[in-house]
Amino acid sequence: MKSYSELTRNELLNLKAELDRQFEEIKAQGLSLDMSRGKPARAQLDLSMGMMDVLHGDADLSCETGVDCRNYGVIDGIPEAKRLLGAMSEVEPENIIIYGNSSLNVMFDSIARSMTHGVMGYTPWCKLDKVKFLCPVPGYDRHFKITEFFGIEMINVPMTPEGPDMDMVEELVQSDEAIKGIWCVPKYSNPQGYTYSQETCERFARLKPAAPDFRIYWDNAYSIHHLYDYHQDYLHEILEECREVGNPDIVYKFTSTSKVSFPGSGIAAVAASQANLDDFRKYMRIQTIGHDKLNQLRHVRFFKDLDGLHEHMRKHAAIIRPKFEMVENTLDKELTGLGIGEWTKPFGGYFISFDSMDGCAKRIVGLAKEAGVVMTHAGATFPYGKDPRDRNIRIAPTFPTLDELEKAVNVFVVCVKKASVEKLLRKKDA
Amino acid sequence: MKSYSELTRNELLNLKAELDRQFEEIKAQGLSLDMSRGKPARAQLDLSMGMMDVLHGDADLSCETGVDCRNYGVIDGIPEAKRLLGAMSEVEPENIIIYGNSSLNVMFDSIARSMTHGVMGYTPWCKLDKVKFLCPVPGYDRHFKITEFFGIEMINVPMTPEGPDMDMVEELVQSDEAIKGIWCVPKYSNPQGYTYSQETCERFARLKPAAPDFRIYWDNAYSIHHLYDYHQDYLHEILEECREVGNPDIVYKFTSTSKVSFPGSGIAAVAASQANLDDFRKYMRIQTIGHDKLNQLRHVRFFKDLDGLHEHMRKHAAIIRPKFEMVENTLDKELTGLGIGEWTKPFGGYFISFDSMDGCAKRIVGLAKEAGVVMTHAGATFPYGKDPRDRNIRIAPTFPTLDELEKAVNVFVVCVKKASVEKLLRKKDA
């Protein structure tokens, strides 16, 4: 295939005419497809239906310490749930607090708590003139929305396949006391599917921030969400690493079963040092009488242990792996060598990250929408919704059926080509 | 019976000797009883076990609009849950947001939101020098703990059987812009079991606070928690009243099924004006992707409608009514005419409020503890844990079995008598 940039003006014009024709044909089909949402498909949810039966009307609903899970009590999680999510987070049960149905909610509350009460006794952020967060980009839009909501200034840090640019992270956190945190999705990152290298993790653990209340928000959302049995990314465990290098309090590790059991009806957890967990608990004890212990029990009785979780995730993988592969194969076949796009090929997680030529992402997403295919809003993967190069698009292959997805990705490919040709023609005319 | 205050010093000394002997006898029994906690008994929790079966592995888990409740989506509650909790709250479904498992958590978050983001566009409270709350006393300790946690100054307002002293409430909120809210448990109040009169509700709706961001925190925790079929308190519906008098935004109504289904595994809701709910939603959309819809569905399929809820609450009443009556009868029999205590006889809710002679509550609770009976900490029903007259004790009859409760209340009675005699003797000696 010849790269688009090597085409003459006439060749581009001919190509554009052909792509316009294809595009009109697609539009005429009146499609209504969605590649925007990191949601499990129905078939994945069906995998957890057995969970509806483990707590039946005749079941003993006491946890292993004999506490009746139907009543008030046990603020930070029943022991067996701490063990299960501890295993999933690769930490000891005593380093875990179990929360409600959403780890995003726990992250939000952690920022809210830092605003009003400060971190482990330091000045509440609402009393400071300026608070800043580092945001590896592209990244997870819901993280950025939280920090934006609290008026926290966000600084972009470029992502690499090994994680955030650590030279930049180190320099910034060492030099600016206003920088209080960094958002990380360290494994199968949203949207690239990158996993931080061991060196990156070690450098994170060794950060010497100017702010004593700086925290790494380590959102390990896809810790066991592999696509393959053998090709799997391995993430170095950071909490132990931090403890070993004398930096035990620098990280909050978040996890949840949202994309293991049921999104919105899972259980979430935080792993951190005792000092941090005590700080969390102080807030929690006033905020609530306790989280839903029956749902904790339901999860433990269904999954049993880490092996049970892994076995379950293999069934998820069997459903979504063909979707990822189909998207990747189609992009390979249709776009390789054209010089108009690059994309990731993750071994896990929920997304593929696509980078178009600079200045084309908005147009591509707009064209796709016109053709009946909803993509994640261009820019969504950057703070304030602003992608400085207007090139990143997040592809979410999981929710549609394979058949729908195939249609959608073929539409997407035409939109990428069309927007790229338009861009190159504008360049030639300029 | 002769009032203790009419007894001579010698009569008191003889009485004290007899009570000391009784107290030692009780201590020798090595009791371990608990009248401190507003928790349902096991038998009450058993009433809801059918809820464990309504969502089984073969059930269709879509809500009535066809949304799959197992997946992300529907931020503010499925329609049937809004209808159910709307009926329970006596408001239209469109005036309801459904939350997670705890209304206390929603109240906490409402204060946190007001601190960092302000109420409907007004200055965030964290930017103000002083924020104050009115606290009808005695009241619910968890309310007071929230406002204390956020550094909000609390002002005691005396309760009457018709509700808070409204002359005082009106005068304070009209004259002080720093007063941003008032905590209310308007029906079967914690701890007295009082229900606000219609006049009180009408005066609340007509408040003209100096602060435009003043809100009534109307925690209707016991709205359907009657003890009797015929003797029931009726609470005037405040949201409609506020709308009618042109004060639609002044109230947040909270409710939950914590003491209807399972404490900690119920569902919570807020009823308020559209403007207030929009303010809540703005925060919520950033805070979470959504609450547990499966638990919403579980509640709706089990209770079906308001009739179903009422029928269920009659079964609760059948279990706890004998407990309340036994406590009341014992107090009547043992203390009437002695002038050493007064107590409420509520038609619903979870508590009986006991007022000893001034300066005796701590001693009574201490004696009870010594004798093996745990009561709610004296002072807990007041802001900062400080009962200025040291006389209020909250009795929670629901959790123990009838047999345990009978033992506990008889111990309590001896402790009341003993503490009172000691107090009167000190007075005579002074």
Question: Secondary structure elements and their pairing?
Answer:
The structure is a homodimer of 430-residue chains.
Chain A: H1 9-28, E1 33-34, H2 42-46, H3 51-54, H4 79-89, E2 96-98, H5 103-117, E3 132-137, H6 141-149, E4 153-160, E5 163-164, H7 166-175, E6 179-184, H8 198-205, E7 215-219, H9 238-244, E8 251-256, E9 268-271, H10 274-287, H11 293-303, H12 306-335, E10 341-343, E11 352-356, H13 361-370, E12 373-374, E13 392-395, H14 402-429
Parallel strand pairs in A: 1-12, 3-4, 3-6, 6-7, 7-8
Antiparallel strand pairs in A: 2-9, 4-5, 8-9, 10-11, 11-13
Helix pairs in contact in A: 1-14, 5-6, 8-9, 12-14, 13-14
Summarize the structure.
Two copies of one chain form a homodimer. With 430 residues, chain A is of the alpha/beta class.
Describe what you observe in this structure.
- The structure is a homodimer of 430-residue chains.
- Chain A has 430 residues and is of the alpha/beta class.
- Chain A folds into 2 domains: 4-44 and 310-429, Alpha-Beta Complex (Aspartate Aminotransferase, domain 1), CATH 3.90.1150; 61-304, Type I PLP-dependent aspartate aminotransferase-like (Major domain) (Aspartate Aminotransferase, domain 2).
- Chain A has helices at residues 9-28, 42-46, 51-54, 79-89, 103-117, 141-149, 166-175, 198-205, 238-244, 274-287, 293-303, 306-335, 361-370, 402-429; strands at residues 33-34, 96-98, 132-137, 153-160, 163-164, 179-184, 215-219, 251-256, 268-271, 341-343, 352-356, 373-374, 392-395.
- In chain A, strands 2-9-8-7-6-3-4-5 form an 8-stranded mixed beta sheet, with helices on both faces.
- In chain A, helix 12 (306-335) crosses helix 14 and helix 13 crosses helix 14.
- The longest helix of chain A is centred in the C-terminal third of the chain and has 30 residues, at 306-335.
- The first copy, chain A, is globular.
- The mean pLDDT of chain A is 97.
- At the A-B interface, helix 5, helix 6, helix 10 and helix 11 of A face helix 5, helix 6, helix 10 and helix 11 of B.
